[in-house]
Design brief:
- The structure holds two protein chains of two kinds.
- In chain A, strand 1 (37-38) and strand 2 form a beta hairpin.
- Chain A is globular.
- Chain A has a two-stranded antiparallel sheet.
- Chain A is built from 17 helices and two strands.
- Chain A has helices spanning 2-9, 11-14, 46-75, 78-84, 97-102, 107-138, 145-154, 162-171, 179-182, 189-200, 204-212, 217-228, 230-246, 249-254, 263-272, 279-282, 292-328; strands at 37-38, 41-42.
- By secondary structure, chain A is mainly alpha-helical.
- Chain A folds into two domains: 34-95, no CATH class; 98-328, MetI-like fold (Orthogonal Bundle).
- Chain A starts with a helix and ends with a helix.
- By secondary structure, chain B is an all-alpha fold.
- Chain B folds into two domains: 13-84, no CATH class; 88-322, MetI-like (MetI-like fold, Orthogonal Bundle), CATH 1.10.3720.10.
- Chain B is 69% helix and 1% strand.
- In chain B, helix 12 (189-214) packs across helix 14, helix 13 (218-226) runs antiparallel to helix 14 and helix 14 runs antiparallel to helix 18 (295-322).
- Chain B has 18 helices and two strands.
- Classes of the chains: A mainly alpha, B mainly alpha.
- Chains A and B meet through strand 1, strand 2, helix 3, helix 6 and helix 7 of A and helix 1, helix 3, helix 4, helix 5 and helix 8 of B.
Amino acid sequence: MSTSSQTQTMPPTGASGPPPEGGTGPHRTPRRRRPRVIDGVATPGPVESVLKGIILVIACALVILPFVGVFATSVASPEQVIKAGGFVLLPTSIDFTAYQMIFSGGVVTRALGVTAFVTVVGTTLSLALTATLGWALSRRGSFANRPLLLLVLISLLFGPGIIPSYLVVERLGLLDTLWALIIPTSVSAFNVVVVRAFFVQLPQEILDSAKVDGAGELQLFLRIALPLSKPVFAVIGLFYGVGYWNAFFNALLYLSDASKWPLQMVLRTYVVQDTQLGGQDLGIDTASLPPQTSLQMAILVVSIVPVLIVYPFLQRHFAKGMLTGAVKG
Amino acid sequence: MTAGVEERSAPRAGSEEPEQGGARAARPRVPWWKRMWRDRTVLLFALPGMGVIIVFQYLALGGNVIAFQDFQPYLGISKSLWVGFENFGILFSGDPEFLGALRNTLIITGLQTVFVFPAPIVLALMLHSLVSNRVRQLVQSVLYLPHFLSWVIVVALFQQVLGGAGLLNNFLRANDWEPIDIIGNADVFYALITSQVIWKDTGWATILFLAVLAGIDKSLYEAAAVDGASRWRQTWHVTLPGMRPIIIMLFILKLGDSLSVGFEQLILQQDAVGIGVAQVLDTYVYNNGVVGGYWGVSAAVGLVKGVVGLVLVLMANKIAHMFGEEGVYKA
């Protein structure tokens, strides 16, 4: 029974070889079975399915495995980490010393504070600027609407370059301030376009009737446009947030004062470049630090976890939010 | 990007333009300052965001003039000496460091075009042909994740897995095999950074392809099946032609970016592997300009890089039009 069904479903896969003969008339019984079809789309044959399954499982494992290793190593006991010479996949016991150390007020704690500040303030500012600009650009027919829109769109096509950007930040006196991490990247032209596209397709009747009721521009924006577009702002806010959390380039370029470093710079110095993290860096005076690897993995975990926390929310929204902007235009 | 680009022609063509658009022709023209005053609230709304874009995009662009100066930071743009095209001499003088950076950039871009660009197309086809939606969503949410990690984290993860004391080598040593030197080995550096890009962005890059795949008319597949087309033939004659516009569009955009290859990714790994293989044009500009103080020369390299990128996009778009494709935008 099973063998016969096997042979019957085989042909679709084999069909990749010889093309179906054009000579057979439409009413003659076809020699090979047609592929099984769902909604008109042929379903894959078993060999292909198995192959695909294997590839996808490997791909997922390659993504997940490093995370497991990092989490495991950060909570593994010092002895186990030393014995393994580094990375541990299965911790035999749980030990949170590394976390206690990095949270005891040294460089890592301070960097975490900086990053949290930049993320919260930056995301708020970005959302405000993006929403207002998107709204203004959605008011078609208003003064200079088209030239302004064009300016935003053209800015998508080029970047000013590293040195010119640096010079502007320098001239504005933002070097070595946290604002250098926030203001230059606070408006993403792409997000403005997405928001504008969303505002443009809001039903005109609602806006008109509100206008008849005496609502001004500000009220239209605050009372009608914003409440109707919460999902879009949820997605865009998350993207901005993740962007600020991950920001490394701006910190590298604009901050020479190590006391203002965000988490990503600390990560680079102590994890990627493997600089020794001593007791005074961490603000503690114990001689018995856990192994460097444990500390490094704990820093990595701390920088990954917030992204993992917002990720499910992002995931639920981004397909919808981004694609309404990107596909409908 | 997509949105931006279609946007340009959309409102113009839109017939449901609000009052002003159509009425302007009929009514006597309102002078511009009256219209400006009438729309002052809207303009006020635009002001802060527009200000950021104008200052950090357009005004910053003006900073490129230092490419024509012997720029000294303490003198500023206004007092630094003008030297004409002298700084651009670096492009032709056969300076080994510049040529090295150019060569590395081209190699990396070439590798990315061959290996990174097609990867999400293949993955999207695979995901699209999964029959179970649940499985597909699960795989998608796993594979999208690395896109949201910073380069610092990605590089750190790769070090932990492939480094000297990493997962792979510990496993090899535990089984009495020779450890492999990957991190910090110049010979395999390009393979390493290419696989990093694939690991980080392939999943996420499928999102546009999947949207396009979902939009392909099902009746085309039905018609093909009725004509006796096998699965592979359907893919070849229905799916791929349906994806062609988006593939071409992304390819054009990629071309425009071809001289900017992963600044963060490379600057993070330069120390370990050496500047000989890991210096690209962007890191050259940063290392020599911001760090090294050769402002004029670095700005000249950056400017030429930017102009070449723009020209590449415009040309590729033109060529796409000539072959009857939509390209990125319509002029």
